[in-house]
Amino acid sequence: MKIQETGRLIDTIAETRLERRRFLTRAGLAGLGAAATLTLGSQKAAAAESPAQRAQERAQAMDTVKEIFAAALIAEDLATTFYYNGLVGGVIQDVNLAGPGGSANNVQANGNAGNVQYIQAALTEEIAHADLFRSLLGISGPAGDPVQTFYFPAGTFDSLAAFTGLLDALENAFIGAYLNAIQEFSVKSAHVDDGDGNTYTAKQLDYFAKVAASIMGIEAEHRVLGRVISNSNPANNLAYEQTDGLNAVYNGPKSAVAALTPFLTPSTGPGFSLATALANQGTVSIAVMGNPPAF
After folding, report:
1. Whose CB has fewer CB within 10 Å in the chain, the N or C terminal residue?
2. Around 38, how many Cα atoms within 13 Å sit in the side-chain half-sphere?
3. Are 209 and 175 within 8 A, CB to CB?
4. More confident residue, 36 or 95
């Protein structure tokens, strides 16, 4: 299904410009001046916005709350499909997983039960995240999700290198998407403005940012545990998670949706059904704890 079809889930986009100066004023930061800007690495943020900053703000200004939720739902469904097929594909028999002749529920003596459980728990977590976004969008069940089939490069679920390599790429993209979502919800909260005509309170928008942060933390865990499975050391190799080159969630050429588009395209490789993954996930997933953070 083409990404444009997610438009069925969202209201007509009313583009609005989110002015940085107005945001700083509402947040009570306007008087701090350049001396209070945060230094990242060796570069200090300048008082005047760079072209890249203005481009990012324009892209983020186009994203509505419902579009952010829709993009997140697509990402979580993609992740659900990915982790399920990792658990039932040939890769599960790698010695770093269930071992030769093994399965998700029958780890061999020369396999690694802990690594298998990492993937099993990740599957459960991605399903929980999708359920949340489905409820926020008013979608009654997975059959109503905008994308039902995801396409992966041939061999993705056959070997550990292919599987964990794509796992790392996907989780980095998910982390970048949620980092952008946190920023977008924060700016919208300062404006109490969604951009598509819907009215959300500042508290609701603040809460959406908190939820996005809580999910981003789980995706960061997945990134690191994927590196554990692939024996990439140190697994926790970043002092700060990154936006992975993304500057918005839904709109623009550097958005999360644009980054995920290849997985919605048949030319990428074989297609895998979300419905199949959800219908059978109970045979390979394991329970996890926790609920969304309190409002």
Report:
1. C
2. 2
3. no
4. 95
Amino acid at 32: L
Query: 39 φ, ψ to 5°?
Result: -90, 125
Q: Which domain holds residue 140?
A: 66-283
Query: Between 45 and 227, whose confidence is greater?
Result: 227
* Bridge pairing between strands 149-151 and 43-44: unpaired
- Number of folded domains in the chain? 1
pTM of structure: 0.83
Q: Is the dihedral of CA 220, 223, 227, 232 positive or negative?
A: negative
Q: What is the mean pLDDT of residues 233-239?
A: 97
288, part of any domain: no
Calculate the average pLDDT of the chain.
85
Listed in sequence order, the residues at least 6 apart from 136 whose beta carbon sits closer than 8 Å to its beta carbon are 69
Cβ burial, residue 258 (10 Å; 0-12/13-18/19+): middle
- Residue 57 CB: number of other CB atoms within 10 A? 20
- Supply the Cα-derived Rg of the chain in whole angstroms: 20
For the CA atoms of 170, 126, 66, 12, what is the dihedral angle to 10 degrees?
60
19 assigned to some structural domain: no
Classify residue 185: in a domain, yes or no. yes
| pLDDT tens, position by position, 130-145 | 999 999 999 999 999 9
Per DSSP (E only), the strands in the chain are 39-40, 43-44, 149-151, 271-273
pLDDT in tens, 51-87: 877 777 777 778 999 999 999 999 999 999 999 999 9
Does residue 1 sit within a domain?
A: no
Neighbours of 23 (CB within 10 A): 18
Can you tell me which residue has the tokens 């982390």? 175
| 23 in Cβ contact with 187 (< 8 Å) | yes
Q: Does the structure show a pLDDT above 90 at 276?
A: yes
